[in-house]
């Protein structure tokens, strides 16, 4: 079973994604801020992390940098409600697989996850 970590300060978004992905056979952890997300990434070693770019405290860009420092194998997809092309390019340069705009279209997300994780 593939493990996904969702890091987003929007708690309802996290819970909705978690429930949706669990029903489709993924093991899912959630974290409501960057610090908690990094801690869970170190402990649970997910196959993939969905990380919001814009969070209070540790930004998604910082979380991405730190995840890639301690584990290059974790695939990171950025989530953004108001992303700019500059932030998307910056995340790709830092090792993100890609980004998804909010509000998230669940079926498109599922297709992407299956493509990336091969499940």
Question: What would you note in describing this structure?
Answer:
There is one protein chain. The protein is an alpha/beta fold and 119 residues long. Helix content is 47%, strand content 21%. It has helices at residues 11-23, 34-44, 60-70, 85-93, 106-117, and strands at residues 3-7, 27-31, 48-52, 75-80, 98-101. It has a 5-stranded parallel beta sheet with strand order 2-1-3-4-5, with helices on both faces. Helix 2 (34-44) runs parallel beside helix 3 (60-70). The longest helix is centred in the N-terminal third of the chain and has 13 residues, at 11-23. The model has no long low-confidence stretch (mean pLDDT 94). InterPro entries: Bact_response_regulator, CheY-like_superfamily, Sig_transdc_resp-reg_receiver. One of its GO terms (molecular function) is DNA binding.
